[in-house]
């Protein structure tokens, strides 16, 4: 696996900002399209980016998202400033959600986010510490 | 099924460029849960929903959904329509409830996405 990064893009995601939520993922999708990657791969990356972005908006005090495009893989990373996930194993179970009413009004909070991100990833890892924050890394293999 | 046929069946109003009515739809998904749309929808799908916020358009954009029908007489805000236009997404609005809209389209041969 090469460590060369062809391109990287960073996004700041605000807590509770439903008005512009999704704009970072939209940008990520456009970049991947411009790179001429296959559609099924772009779709998976878009779902991952959007679910991660929505999670930052709904569940965190804000954070950052990063897209890395390597010759052989796409990596999407998020890091937030809290509050952290109490039970990561439970959060990965379909249907488990701690989303608030505002998120549910927007159509989210079905407890599908993290399981969907993991399903769309070739490689997925999550670390979280209560009171500190959550770090998620999702990778899709290219080719 | 062409979008213009769907418009007629649901007696719907087209909120975006009428050229979109030539779009072809292969199957449909009816839900107010965008989380489920993100988990279950496949290519070339018509989304029927009662939600009209911008996240519906963002969800459609991510999933390559090119057609949305808003049910229960819901009307999106101008900004939401503009976001759809910018992404080449066609918007229809019908007064039918979700159940009836889906039933009418099913009766005419349109089928749901398979999640099995």
Could you walk me through the main structural features you see in this protein, from its secondary elements to its overall organization?
Chain A has about 140 residues and is α+β, with helices and mostly antiparallel strands. Chain A has helices spanning about 25-35, 40-60, 90, 100-105, 115-120, and strands spanning about 5-15, 65-70, 75-80, 125-130, 135-140. Chain A has a 5-stranded antiparallel β-sheet, with helices on one face. In chain A, a hairpin with a 3-residue loop joins strand 2 (about 65-70) and strand 3 (about 75-80). In chain A, helix 1 runs antiparallel to helix 2 (about 40-60) and helix 2 packs antiparallel against helix 5 (about 115-120). Chain B is α/β, with parallel strands linked by helices and about 120 residues long. Chain B has 5 helices and 6 strands, in the order H-E-E-H-E-H-E-H-E-H-E. Chain B has helices at about 5-10, 35-40, 55-65, 80-85, 100-105, and strands at about 15, 25-30, 45-50, 65-70, 90-95, 110. In chain B, strands 1-5-4-3-2-6 form a 6-stranded mixed β-sheet, with helices on both faces. In chain B, helix 3 (about 55-65) links the parallel strand 3 (about 45-50) and strand 4. Chain B is globular and about 35 Å long. The interface of A and B includes residues 19, 22, 25, 115 and 119 of A.
List keywords for this structure.
heterodimer; A: 143 residues; alpha+beta; 5-stranded antiparallel beta sheet; B: 116 residues; alpha/beta; 6-stranded mixed beta sheet; 6 strands; 37% helix; 18% strand
What number is the mean pLDDT of chain B? 95
- Sketch the major β-sheet of chain A: 5 strands, antiparallel
Task: State the helicity of chain B in percent bands.
Answer: 25-40%
- Radius of gyration of chain B in whole Å, from Cα? 12 Å
| Shape by Cα distribution of chain A | globular
Q: Unreliable stretches of chain B, pLDDT < 50, 5 or more residues?
A: none
List the helices and strands and how they pair.
The complex is a heterodimer of chains A (143) and B (116).
Chain A: E1 7-13, H1 23-34, H2 39-59, E2 63-69, E3 73-80, H3 88-91, H4 101-105, H5 113-120, E4 123-129, E5 133-141
Antiparallel strand pairs in A: 1-2, 2-3, 3-5, 4-5
Helix pairs in contact in A: 1-2, 2-5
Chain B: H1 3-9, E1 13-14, E2 27-30, H2 34-40, E3 45-49, H3 54-63, E4 67-70, H4 78-86, E5 90-93, H5 98-107, E6 111-112
Parallel strand pairs in B: 2-3, 2-6, 3-4, 4-5
Antiparallel strand pairs in B: 1-5
Helix pairs in contact in B: 3-4
């Amino acid at each position: 696996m090469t460590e060369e990064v062809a391109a990287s893009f960073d996004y700041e995601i605000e807590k509770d900002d439903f008005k512009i939520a999704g704009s970072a993922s939209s940008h990520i999708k456009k970049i991947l399209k411009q790179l001429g990657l296959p559609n099924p791969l772009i779709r998976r990356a878009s779902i991952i980016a959007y679910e991660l972005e929505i999670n930052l908006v709904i569940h965190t005090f804000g954070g950052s998202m990063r897209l890395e495009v390597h010759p052989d893989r796409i990596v999407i990373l998020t890091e937030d400033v809290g509050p952290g996930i109490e039970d990561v194993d439970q959060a990965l179970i379909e249907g488990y959600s701690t989303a608030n009413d505002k998120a549910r009004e927007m159509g989210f909070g079905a407890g599908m986010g993290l399981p969907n991100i993991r399903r769309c990833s070739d490689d997925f890892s999550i670390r979280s510490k209560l009171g500190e924050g959550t770090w998620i890394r999702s990778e899709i293999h290219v080719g | 099924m062409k979008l213009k046929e769907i418009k007629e069946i649901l007696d719907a109003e087209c909120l975006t460029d009428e050229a979109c009515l030539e779009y072809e739809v292969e199957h449909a998904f009816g839900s107010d849960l965008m989380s489920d749309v993100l988990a279950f929808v496949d290519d070339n799908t018509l989304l029927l929903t009662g939600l009209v916020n911008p996240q519906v358009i963002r969800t459609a954009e991510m999933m390559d959904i090119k057609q949305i029908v808003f049910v229960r007489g819901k009307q999106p805000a101008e900004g939401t329509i503009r976001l759809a236009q910018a992404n080449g997404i066609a918007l229809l609005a019908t007064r039918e409830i979700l159940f009836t809209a889906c039933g009418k389209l099913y009766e005419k041969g349109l089928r749901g996405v398979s999640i099995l």
